[in-house]
Write a structure and sequence with these properties.
This protein has four domains: 82 residues, Helix Hairpins; 36 residues, no CATH class; 52 residues; 47 residues. It is built from twelve helices and no strands. The radius of gyration is 24 Å and the shape is extended. The protein starts with a helix and ends with a helix. 8% of the residues are buried.
């Protein structure tokens, strides 16, 4: 692939590729990563192969463009990444011992903070959460970081009580018909739900994506059944749609 990229960026290469910079490709690589994620969650092997190739192409293209402009290239990035992973896995590459996953994560965070301090970046516990992450994933990371710093509910019962409180506040906002308060309280419910999932090993972003994939698949099957029976799906009543939905669920075994 590097040979192809060098040809694309060469004198007789592609005008579009030669006009790109690492900055102009930011949205492209973000989009390709989402497409790869979707293919993985769909269980689409051919799609995974294609999208993985697209992601790797853009990673290598960005590295080549960066190096051409005096910045770090692929070799620099690989060396830096290998060195960082070696430092952060002393239980693999050194003499450190870890008893469980919690201790492993704690060691990781300790090493990471020490690295930041050496670089003059003595940041807070939440500083490492990327602001451009999808909101549900960002909420998960914030909760995880806060919990590692010791700031979280003491037990699941306390968290469940907090969730019920947030739900009551949401219902009160709905009753008050205040759009701003409704949005705020709905956000609080979602934020608390993310932590509930995290404590049970569930990532809200992934769980919701799987739910959307499942719903979309079943909805498409409903429309397909309607067409097979000569029905105009858009003109069906809710009871008729629900009957189709129930049939699709039975056919899926769920």
């Amino acid at each position: 692939m590097l040979t192809v990229i060098k040809r694309l960026l060469g004198p007789d290469g592609c005008p579009w590729d030669k006009a790109q910079t690492p900055v102009t490709l930011c949205d492209n690589i973000a989009e390709e990563v989402f497409e790869l994620t979707h293919a993985i969650r769909q269980g689409d092997s051919a799609g995974v192969c294609e999208e993985l190739g697209d992601v790797l192409f853009l990673v290598l293209l960005i590295a080549e463009l960066s190096e051409e402009n005096g910045g770090p290239g692929l070799a620099d990035a690989l060396a830096a990444g290998a060195a960082k992973m070696t430092r952060r896995h002393p239980h693999v590459f050194g003499e450190a011992e870890v008893k469980n996953r919690a201790q492993l994560i704690q060691n990781w965070e300790t090493i990471k903070r020490a690295e930041k301090a050496e670089q003059g970046r003595d940041e807070g516990a939440l500083a490492g959460v990327a602001p451009d992450l999808p909101p549900l994933l960002r909420a998960y990371r914030v909760h995880a970081k806060a919990a590692r710093a010791g700031f979280t509910w003491e037990n699941n019962a306390d968290l469940q009580e907090q969730l019920e409180q947030e739900w009551r506040e949401w219902r009160a906002a709905v009753a008050g018909e205040n759009q701003s308060e409704m949005e705020q309280e709905f956000g609080d419910v979602l934020f608390t739900l993310v932590e509930l999932g995290r404590r049970h090993g569930i990532k809200a972003n992934a769980a919701l994506d799987f739910a959307v994939i499942k719903f979309t698949s079943r909805f498409n099957e409903m429309e397909k059944l309607a067409r097979q029976r000569g029905l105009d799906f858009t003109k069906l009543g809710l009871d008729e749609m629900n009957a189709l939905w129930a049939e699709v669920k039975r056919n899926c075994g769920q």
